[in-house]
């Protein structure tokens, strides 16, 4: 059983017709949808550009750890599907072949109409997909560039929409076409208008419905379906304005949609190659830290080693005056010794009432031969006279990723979390000062959280999320 989400991509809201069907056929599955509305429409764009944009969407979704990709856009399917399939290790499903298959099944006159975007028609993908299976099918394709804008502007119920649909479909009327493929995932939103113009004798094929049936089959084939009865959720992202997206999506899905806006223009425009190594060394002797960092890489298929795996190495002295300096010393120092990429964390507690102390001295606050208990005892003693309201503090984590012998290329990120130091310890999880670090928003100390819960709000979690966005590209960079 696999609870990772299925990713759906489209140039806009059209892919929601596929999502709607997925929620109907696969209610146990978690779903993540991304619509690239900022760059809509895809239909008229050159195929190479559609392919680049599609990879940017895909790379964004891969970081959300999707288990399967559905290209819920005909234009992107035509331009990028074979490339995606060749380069990704997760199953990839496009909308064209399932739609073509359904059309062959439905037609009696063996004459099938296809309405689609300019890009899809130009790619001839539907005709090719049908002819691959049945050479006798006659396919008449028609570009319908005016339909996507109608849907994206939420005009699909207007008189204008009715007129545009009628005009667009005119060349297909009074032919012996008995089956019409809605070859763009936006079109099912106009289905009543299309059916009305074509008449009830013409079967409309909704590629999305067919696609989800294939997704369902593949989930079983690969053994990656979600468990029955789990409460699933759907997350929505748009590169455009969330407001209009939410109106259309909520209406169409019958569900309160609150999409998040994302910018994907910095995402790589092709596959990010597999890492040259599957091992990362975390240069820390602190098992608490290593556990939190390893948790973050768990879904990545990367093995995280720590200094415990290299007991013979000499210590790197933390002689810096800032977290960044110390993290660099550790990362660069151990990367040189190990001749491997190394990730180091330098972190600490900064208490306002103590002028930011213990700061970089957090690990040796109680002096040499320090341990957590002694450090905590000293902290509480120092704050004995300080009233609750003045016990505000923050944790800071600075992460430095270093490649061997290239200190000038270090990748540096930081994160913080704010809270208050309590007088009595609470909780047994975490490490270091966690039992005394109270987070008001949660009503708990950090030691009362699971590793995942702590990562969701902690300084280290925040830094790791920044790292997550950057390290693959950094890792691949040439040494020039
Ligand atoms: O999430 C945290 N929860 C509780 N305490 C924490 C946390 N993050 C840092 N801290 C404290 C522990 C240590 O007293 C100091 C870090 O010192 P720092 O030198 O970075 O780490 P460390 O000596 O424990 O291990 P190492 O240098 O081998 O990575 O701040
Ligand atoms: Mg240390």
Automatic annotation (TrEMBL):
<dbReference type="InterPro" id="IPR020922">
    <property type="entry name" value="dITP/XTP_pyrophosphatase"/>
</dbReference>
<feature type="binding site">
    <location>
        <position position="454"/>
    </location>
    <ligand>
        <name>substrate</name>
    </ligand>
</feature>
<dbReference type="GO" id="GO:0035870">
    <property type="term" value="F:dITP diphosphatase activity"/>
</dbReference>
<feature type="binding site">
    <location>
        <begin position="10"/>
        <end position="11"/>
    </location>
    <ligand>
        <name>substrate</name>
    </ligand>
</feature>
<keyword id="KW-0413">Isomerase</keyword>
<dbReference type="GO" id="GO:0036220">
    <property type="term" value="F:ITP diphosphatase activity"/>
</dbReference>
<dbReference type="GO" id="GO:0000166">
    <property type="term" value="F:nucleotide binding"/>
</dbReference>
<dbReference type="GO" id="GO:0046872">
    <property type="term" value="F:metal ion binding"/>
</dbReference>
<feature type="binding site">
    <location>
        <position position="346"/>
    </location>
    <ligand>
        <name>Mg(2+)</name>
    </ligand>
</feature>
<dbReference type="InterPro" id="IPR002637">
    <property type="entry name" value="RdgB/HAM1"/>
</dbReference>
<protein>
    <recommendedName>
        <fullName>Multifunctional fusion protein</fullName>
        <ecNumber>3.6.1.66</ecNumber>
        <ecNumber>5.1.1.3</ecNumber>
    </recommendedName>
</protein>
<keyword id="KW-0547">Nucleotide-binding</keyword>
<feature type="active site" description="Proton acceptor">
    <location>
        <position position="346"/>
    </location>
</feature>
<comment type="function">
    <text>Provides the (R)-glutamate required for cell wall biosynthesis.</text>
</comment>
<dbReference type="GO" id="GO:0008360">
    <property type="term" value="P:regulation of cell shape"/>
</dbReference>
<dbReference type="GO" id="GO:0071555">
    <property type="term" value="P:cell wall organization"/>
</dbReference>
<feature type="active site" description="Proton donor/acceptor">
    <location>
        <position position="184"/>
    </location>
</feature>
<dbReference type="InterPro" id="IPR004391">
    <property type="entry name" value="Glu_race"/>
</dbReference>
<dbReference type="InterPro" id="IPR033134">
    <property type="entry name" value="Asp/Glu_racemase_AS_2"/>
</dbReference>
<feature type="binding site">
    <location>
        <begin position="42"/>
        <end position="43"/>
    </location>
    <ligand>
        <name>substrate</name>
    </ligand>
</feature>
<dbReference type="GO" id="GO:0009146">
    <property type="term" value="P:purine nucleoside triphosphate catabolic process"/>
</dbReference>
<comment type="subunit">
    <text>Homodimer.</text>
</comment>
<comment type="similarity">
    <text>Belongs to the HAM1 NTPase family.</text>
</comment>
<dbReference type="Pfam" id="PF01725">
    <property type="entry name" value="Ham1p_like"/>
</dbReference>
<comment type="function">
    <text>Pyrophosphatase that catalyzes the hydrolysis of nucleoside triphosphates to their monophosphate derivatives, with a high preference for the non-canonical purine nucleotides XTP (xanthosine triphosphate), dITP (deoxyinosine triphosphate) and ITP. Seems to function as a house-cleaning enzyme that removes non-canonical purine nucleotides from the nucleotide pool, thus preventing their incorporation into DNA/RNA and avoiding chromosomal lesions.</text>
</comment>
<dbReference type="GO" id="GO:0017111">
    <property type="term" value="F:ribonucleoside triphosphate phosphatase activity"/>
</dbReference>
<feature type="binding site">
    <location>
        <begin position="431"/>
        <end position="434"/>
    </location>
    <ligand>
        <name>substrate</name>
    </ligand>
</feature>
<dbReference type="Pfam" id="PF01177">
    <property type="entry name" value="Asp_Glu_race"/>
</dbReference>
<comment type="similarity">
    <text>Belongs to the aspartate/glutamate racemases family.</text>
</comment>
<dbReference type="InterPro" id="IPR029001">
    <property type="entry name" value="ITPase-like_fam"/>
</dbReference>
<feature type="active site" description="Proton donor/acceptor">
    <location>
        <position position="73"/>
    </location>
</feature>
<feature type="binding site">
    <location>
        <begin position="284"/>
        <end position="289"/>
    </location>
    <ligand>
        <name>substrate</name>
    </ligand>
</feature>
<dbReference type="InterPro" id="IPR001920">
    <property type="entry name" value="Asp/Glu_race"/>
</dbReference>
<keyword id="KW-0460">Magnesium</keyword>
<dbReference type="GO" id="GO:0008881">
    <property type="term" value="F:glutamate racemase activity"/>
</dbReference>
<keyword id="KW-0378">Hydrolase</keyword>
<feature type="binding site">
    <location>
        <begin position="185"/>
        <end position="186"/>
    </location>
    <ligand>
        <name>substrate</name>
    </ligand>
</feature>
<feature type="binding site">
    <location>
        <begin position="74"/>
        <end position="75"/>
    </location>
    <ligand>
        <name>substrate</name>
    </ligand>
</feature>
<keyword id="KW-0961">Cell wall biogenesis/degradation</keyword>
<keyword id="KW-0546">Nucleotide metabolism</keyword>
<feature type="binding site">
    <location>
        <position position="347"/>
    </location>
    <ligand>
        <name>substrate</name>
    </ligand>
</feature>
<comment type="pathway">
    <text>Cell wall biogenesis; peptidoglycan biosynthesis.</text>
</comment>
